[in-house]
Amino acid sequence: MKKLMMASALALCLGVNAFAEDDGYGNDIPAARQEGTVDDGYGNKLPEYGQSTTEYKSFEEARASSGNSYSAAPIRFGGHFAVGLGSYWDYPEDYLGDNKWLGVTFDIGGVLNYRVNSLLSVVPELNFGFNYTAREVARGSSWYYRNYKVNETRTLFNINIPLTLRLTPMPNLYVEAGGRVSFNLGTSHTWNYYDENGESIPDSEIELEEWKVNTFVPSVIAGVGGSLGQFDFGARLILDLGGIEKEDKLAAYDDKGNFVTDKNNTKNWTVQFLINYYIN
């Protein structure tokens, strides 16, 4: 009988221990809950028994309160400014010589950021654009000017409408891709002579035959950037898919003296650095 009683007491002790809560650090959870010292493994203290857990935030609320580019406002409006370098690609060097064109581009306008969800936004823009490119086409001497060089310049004004899809995979960082349509409004085309010191020779600028470009030119866009408060900062590559030259026929004599024709598929490329400022 005595042995039976001892076995029952031992079993009771083991049963109590079997159902005791332990936090993995040797602390009894019920007591630790009472003291507010139980950790969920992520630095958060578990609530006491009976305490409400409504203070925990949803994923979207946590992103919105973390100060990243995810905004509580589904639509944001702002201003857009971009500056960059550009030149041509798919240039017919066999006919026109080496592609030594290089220039600057500016875009200024407005931006709209429509948030589809916490990761995806649709971002259209409406901009006024300015492209200026130049190349050195000749060097030489004359009886009046000593050594001189000649620069050819091209200027293009347009209205462009980019539309990108923007992904925000982590706080304050985004990647974007999309397309752009440009409506070219006007151009200028000049030659300018410079002396050996690089100074423009007075009255040497010559307005050349009009540079005729296609009115409608499509492009693709890819870029990365980040957001800080009301600002976006980013960089993007813009590649034209359509040729810029309206008069795209080329003709020349080849090495054998044969007269050959070809098509001028010259297209623009631009690397831009941008700033967006949102007013809401």
Helix and strand pattern: HHHEHEEEEEEEEEE
Strand order of the largest sheet: 1-2-3-4-5-7-8-11
Unreliable runs, pLDDT <50, ≥5 residues? 66-71
Q: How helix-rich are the residues, as a percent range?
A: 10-25%
Share of residues in strands = over 45%
CATH topology value of the largest domain: Porin
- Number of helices, where a helix is a run of at least 4 consecutive DSSP H or I residues: 4
The coarse silhouette is elongated
Per CATH, the architecture of the largest domain is Beta Barrel
Number of domains: 2
Q: How would you portray this structure in words?
A:
- 12% of the residues lie in helices and 52% in strands.
- The model is unreliable at 66-71 (pLDDT under 50).
- The chain folds into two domains: 1-56, no CATH class; 75-278, Porin (Beta Barrel).
- It is mostly beta strands and 280 residues long.
- The strands form two sheets. Strands 1-2-3-4-5-7-8-11 form an eight-stranded antiparallel β-barrel. Strands 9-10 form a two-stranded antiparallel ribbon.
- It contains four helices and eleven strands.
- It is elongated.
